[in-house]
């Protein structure tokens, strides 16, 4: 005989609706780098890299990476003493841009060690484990984006091993919208789909608005992804990146110019490989 839960039986007798429990969305739980990853290293281009267990079994790993230069600051303790620390709200100047640190490496699985000025003995340390965890094999940080969510599947693209090949570039045909200025003046100084770039960097970048030195914001009619590394480029028709992007360019589509329909006013560039998008 099939049994009926007592609460359901009373509800049926009294003619009451039975509340159903809605499924809750599972949140990936970050795990320890020390216990899940091997072959961790700091790349002088600013990336922390490791080979981490995905949870599929006891042996399957993927290589993934986190960009550190937009997440770490050279924190001032006193007038003459400073140390490495994670940024409070992200996008602060990183230690490498500060001009005070000139060499960094890992002393074990997660301890970043740097030679810096204003530090007794010139060495300062930071445990990356405190703000970077492993999510289904993916190294992700919560410094800029809290509660990181790993991709559903690992990427087919590889981390670019050569520092000089890691940079992305943005190209394409564009214009400016400036009162009393002929757009052709701006367009003559801008790159085109036939060559040139308006921005070059090596960091994940969100909702970036390109500026021309003399004319202010620069907008794209056609958008082009440049560089040899596997980056993804998206373009929006508003400067706040609200709604869906009107252009999406995959790594294998680089060097191709894509017509947008509307002017592209801001772009986002994230790694196509297993890299933290922030």
Task: Name the descriptors.
mainly beta; 21 strands; four-stranded antiparallel sheet; five-stranded antiparallel sheet; Gamma-B Crystallin, domain 1; single chain; 4 helices; HIV-inactivating Protein, Cyanovirin-n
Structure description:
The chain is mostly beta strands. The protein has two domains: 33-154, Roll (HIV-inactivating Protein, Cyanovirin-n), CATH 2.30.60.10; 164-271, Gamma-B Crystallin, domain 1 (Sandwich). Helix content is 9%, strand content 37%. It is built from four helices and 21 strands. Strands 11, 12, 13, 17 and 20 form a five-stranded antiparallel sheet that branches. Strands 14-21-18-19 form a four-stranded antiparallel sheet, with no helix packed on it. It has a three-stranded antiparallel sheet with strand order 1-2-3. Strand 1 (37-43) and strand 2 form a beta hairpin. The radius of gyration is 24 Å and the shape is globular. It starts with 5 loop residues before the first helix and ends in a 7-residue tail after the last strand.
Number of helices: 4
Calculate the mean pLDDT score and round it.
83
* Count of domains: 2
Q: Summarize the biggest pleated sheet.
A: 5 strands, antiparallel
CATH superfamily of the largest domain: Cyanovirin-N
CATH topology of the largest domain: HIV-inactivating Protein, Cyanovirin-n
Instruction: Say how many strands there are.
Output: 21
Q: What overall form do the CA principal axes indicate?
A: globular
Radius of gyration: 24 Å
CATH class of the largest domain: Mainly Beta
| First-to-last CA distance | 56 Å
- Helix proportion range: under 10%
Structural class by sheet pairing and helices: mainly beta
Order of helix and strand elements from N to C terminus: HHEEEEEHEEEEEEEHEEEEEEEEE
Keywords: Signal
Protein name: Cyanovirin-N domain-containing protein
């Amino acid at each position: 005989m099939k049994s009926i839960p007592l609460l359901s039986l009373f509800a049926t007798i009294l003619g009451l609706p039975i509340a159903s429990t809605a499924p809750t969305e599972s949140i990936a739980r970050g795990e320890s780098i020390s216990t899940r990853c091997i072959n961790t290293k700091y790349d002088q281009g600013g990336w922390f890299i490791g080979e981490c267990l995905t949870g599929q079994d006891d042996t399957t790993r993927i290589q993934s990476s986190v960009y550190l230069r937009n997440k770490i600051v050279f924190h001032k303790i006193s007038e003459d003493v400073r140390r490495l620390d994670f940024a409070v709200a992200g996008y602060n100047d990183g230690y490498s841009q500060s001009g005070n640190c000139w060499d960094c490496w890992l002393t074990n699985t997660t301890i970043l060690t740097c030679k810096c000025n204003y530090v007794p003995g010139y060495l300062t340390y930071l445990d990356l484990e405190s703000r970077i965890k492993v999510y289904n094999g993916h190294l992700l940080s919560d410094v800029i984006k809290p509660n990181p969510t790993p991709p559903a599947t690992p990427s087919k693209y590889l981390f670019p091993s050569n520092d000089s090949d890691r940079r992305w570039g943005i190209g394409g045909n564009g214009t400016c919208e400036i009162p009393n200025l002929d757009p052709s003046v701006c367009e003559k100084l801008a790159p085109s789909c036939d060559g040139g770039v308006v921005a070059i960097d090596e960091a994940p970048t969100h909702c970036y608005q390109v500026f021309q030195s003399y004319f202010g914001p620069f907008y794209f009619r056609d958008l082009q992804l440049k560089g040899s590394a596997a980056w993804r480029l998206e373009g929006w028709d508003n400067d706040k990146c609200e709604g869906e992007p009107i252009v999406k360019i995959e790594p294998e589509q680089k060097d191709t110019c894509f017509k947008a329909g509307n002017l592209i006013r801001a772009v986002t560039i994230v790694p196509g490989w297993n890299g933290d998008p922030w």
